[in-house]
Amino acid sequence: MPSQTGWRRLDAAVVGGGIGGLCAGIALRRAGHKVTIYERSDFVGEVGASVSCAANGTRWLHEWGVDIEKGDPVLLRKLINRDWKTGEPISVYDLDDYEEKWGYVYNMFHRQYMHRMLLDCATQDEGDGEPVECIDIDTEKGIIVFESGISAKHDLVIGADGIGSAVRGIIGIKPERKPAASSCLHANVDTAKARELGLVDYSQDSALEYWGGQKEWNKIVLSPCNRGSLLSYYCFFPREKGDYANQKWDAESTVEELLAPYPDLDEQVLSHLRIGVEVKPWRLWVHQPYDWWHKGVACVLGDAAHPMMPHQSQGACMAIEDAACLGIVFSKKHFAGDVSSALKLYERTRKHRATRVQAASARAAENIHERIGES
């Protein structure tokens, strides 16, 4: 594409309508561009896991005018590390001054509610249409070709299509990856049901709570969401106790599989897990940083650009920051008309930070005290 001078309104395509894709759509709309989001899923089967949105993500939700209350968040108040066997607090880190220190609160969302919140902000209408699959993109001309043979031409193409990204492969990135040393099963627990059974009501803590994770693979992470009505459990254990790295994304597991690795776990947590629902494996792969994120008028963001291990709870925030950066580089203040040059600036701005967080998230698998370095 020839070099152009002066801001111009772009016809942008976002491939993937998850958290990162919707944020990219919002950011580019706020920057004055026309945006079409291509998504094959209706999200009815979306995993009902919690999503952490620290201050570095929350600030952009405010910047874009997202109605955060629609996401039914829990505000993080504490970090609690508990004894693996007894459940007694080993340490409690109070976060009452979090907003004062960082400028914004730390929200914990239910993924489906967060998606709906962002969708409302981006489009206000989900719309009709049959699912499509992205097969090929002309990265120089911005042409998307779908399985049906229908094609669409855009000035800018953003791949927000997740860890299995088609766009990433189309722009020539071949991931170097290996299975993580740990496996993870996720489960949800209804807080009201736990109360009825006389179990501990962890929702009252408004906390991220941890059992284990001290230089070992056994770790339980509890995150409340939906204003505390749902408790989201992430259960990690050595891969030799259960290998889910190659499971299908929509695979289901059983409560028996969930309990098996933890014969000596705190009985209160075990009692919660026994009433867990939506038990699903979380495929864990460690990706090396990619050499580039864009080609021509196409780029990737979020998990398509820097798949994260979950141990720093920064995956959503990094996708939000990517989207915010795209909104800035294509803003009237900074965009001079050349899409490829703007994408080079996006990559140069984001790649160093995101890959640092990516590396720290992998290290944190063995040490819950690992710092991300920048926030």
UniProtKB/TrEMBL annotation:
Domain (FAD-binding) ranges: 10-358
Species the sequence originates in: Hortaea werneckii EXF-2000
Family: Belongs to the paxM FAD-dependent monooxygenase family.
SUPFAM superfamilies: FAD-linked reductases, C-terminal domain (SSF54373), FAD/NAD(P)-binding domain (SSF51905)
Protein's name according to its UniProt entry: FAD-binding domain-containing protein
An MF annotation (GO) of this entry: monooxygenase activity
Keyword Phosphoprotein among record annotations: no
Matching InterPro entries: FAD-bd, FAD-dep_Monooxygenase_BioMet, FAD/NAD-bd_sf
Pfam family, one: FAD_binding_3
Keywords, ordered alphabetically: FAD, Flavoprotein, Monooxygenase, Oxidoreductase
